[in-house]
């Protein structure tokens, strides 16, 4: 158990809709990253938040946005959903240590119809 | 350009046997970290083992060990005494920016099926 939780577990949306995914962090883990994992692929980095500020972004359009709250929980928002946004969305919290290991939540599986 | 390469096809492994999963990486940084994660069919990514670029000894964690060959830019995972619960996808990942952004670049994964 990593102590990282995500909600919802599964979600079905239609093209053009908006979605919000949530992630709660372990106590003391002030950095959270979001990844998108398409079927049969490795996860792709979306962005990272550190102390409520975006701290790095991958190759994703602005319709992917996020928030981090004072308790270090986080949201991923996706506007104007497209079919190829269908994927497993993983959040990971970072244990600040010599290794900076990221611990992942169980993911949210998003299907866009 | 792909930074992590995992090219092995799906593997069947006999229970109690050892299996080696290949991973090569590409970076010009001197300081980086390499990780292996396990992803069962449930979807959660489970951290297995870490190797830092400056670590002189190969990392070990229980039944997992990492064969780190820096000059060849390879970081192969060895799972000893395979168990049925080891059946999963295995991902190699690299963190390049040690002191800044901690993004991970993942390979496409290796599928392992352990058979009794």
Helix-strand blueprint:
The complex is a heterodimer of chains A (113) and B (116).
Chain A: E1 5-7, E2 10-13, E3 19-24, E4 31-37, E5 44-50, E6 53-57, E7 64-68, E8 74-78, E9 87-94, E10 102-104, E11 108-112
Parallel strand pairs in A: 2-11
Antiparallel strand pairs in A: 1-3, 3-8, 4-5, 4-9, 5-6, 7-8, 9-10, 9-11
Chain B: E1 4-5, E2 11-14, E3 19-21, E4 24-25, E5 33-39, E6 46-52, E7 60-61, E8 64-69, E9 74-79, E10 88-95, E11 104-106, E12 110-115
Parallel strand pairs in B: 2-12
Antiparallel strand pairs in B: 1-4, 3-9, 5-6, 5-10, 7-8, 8-9, 10-11, 10-12
Summarize the structure.
Chain A is 0% helix and 51% strand. Chain A is mainly beta and 113 residues long.
Describe the oligomeric state of these chains in a short phrase: heterodimer
Helix content estimate of chain A: under 10%
Low-confidence stretches of chain A: none
Largest interface: A-B, 29 and 26 residues
Strand content of chain A: over 45%
Radius of gyration of chain B, taken over Cα atoms and rounded to an integer in Å? 14 Å
> Beta-strand percentage of chain B?
over 45%
User: What composes the largest sheet of chain A?
Assistant: 7 strands, mixed
Number of strands of chain A: 11
Q: How large is the radius of gyration of chain A?
A: 13 Å
Describe the sheet with the most strands of chain B: 6 strands, mixed
How many helical stretches of chain B? 0
Return the string of H and E elements of chain B.
Answer: EEEEEEEEEEEE
* Low-pLDDT windows of residues of chain B: none
Number of strands of chain B: 12
Name the overall outline of chain A. Answer: globular
Distance between the first and last residues' Cα of chain A: 32 Å
Mean pLDDT of chain B: 92
Inertia-based shape of chain B: globular
